[in-house]
Design goal:
alpha/beta, TIM Barrel, 8-stranded parallel β-barrel, 11 helices, 15% strand, globular, binds 2-phosphoglycolic acid
């Protein structure tokens, strides 16, 4: 199973030109790591058409989508529309959408169902909620997992990419602090247990990632755990050298693991 490194550009960069030059600055390097690592770029919607032709070297993802296929939903974008731009993944349940836009577990659940209907793979964030407290993360993750995966079948549960991303670890949050590798590993094991409870032994075939201030200085702390299947990267994904370092560290660990 390939490692997955997901760039969440959020509402950046400011121009299409910058978006293009950011991707072209690392796109050629991705061929070297593509055997073991898949890189997903999630730009703002408006840049998807401009980045579409890079799909292949990289995969494209959206940062959100609607639960509906069409209709009177001002400002929303549907899975049907995203498919036109080669979008393969969609980030759902990100803590910024929960905190600033009032997204709830049941909305996230409806969006996951819509993504599957149109064969877009959901990247589901767990751990983001107002006032999330470090020593209560297992309870929060359990509660969110149960609600956002309501009514999903075994095959769907296996296909989701889960990200443990505690709100307090996101680099732009006030008093943010990245999770230690040990904490991330412990919560990722917890997500595997929740999955095992629902789908049995195949849970180990599912991808579970960490997100929250991952960058070139701390990536080793996460990549060294074989159970951490990759990272969701925000701020560091806007700097091509920093991002490349994150990709190559996970790639190196994947190669190393295969050899032993
Ligand atoms: P960060 O963002 O890497 O800047 O903490 C991650 C995210 O919010 O997805």
């Amino acid at each position: 199973m390939k490692k997955l490194i997901i760039a969440n550009w959020k509402m950046n960069p400011q121009t299409m030109q910058e978006a293009r030059s950011l991707v072209s600055s690392f796109e050629h390097r991705m061929h070297a790591t593509s055997t073991y690592t898949e890189v997903v770029i999630c730009p703002p919607f408006v840049y998807l058409p401009a980045l579409m032709h890079y799909a292949g070297a990289i995969s494209l993802g959206a940062q959100n989508m609607s639960w509906a296929d069409s209709g009177a939903l001002t400002g929303e974008v549907s899975a049907v529309q995203l498919k036109q731009w080669n979008v393969k993944y969609v980030i759902l349940g990100h803590s910024e959408r929960r905190l600033y836009l009032g997204e709830t577990d049941s909305v996230v659940n409806a969006k996951i169902i819509a993504a599957f209907k149109h064969k877009i793979t959901p990247i589901v964030c767990l751990g983001g909620e107002e006032g999330a407290i470090k020593f209560e993360m297992k309870n929060l993750v359990t509660k969110q997992f149960i609600k956002v995966t309501k009514d999903l079948d075994k095959r769907q549960l296996e296909k989701i990419v889960y990200v443990y991303e505690p709100a307090w670890a996101i680099s732009t949050m006030e008093k943010s602090e990245p999770a230690t590798g040990e904490h991330a590993h412990e919560l990722i094991e917890h997500i595997y247990q929740l999955l095992e409870h629902r789908i049995g032994k195949t849970s180990r075939m599912v991808r579970v990632l960490y997100g929250g201030t991952v960058n070139k200085n701390n990536v080793h702390e996460y990549a060294m755990y074989p159970e951490i299947d990759g990272a969701l990267v925000g701020a560091a994904s806007l700097d091509s050298e920093n991002f490349w370092h994150v990709v190559s560290e996970f790639n190196r660990e994947a190669i190393h693991k295969e050899k032993i």
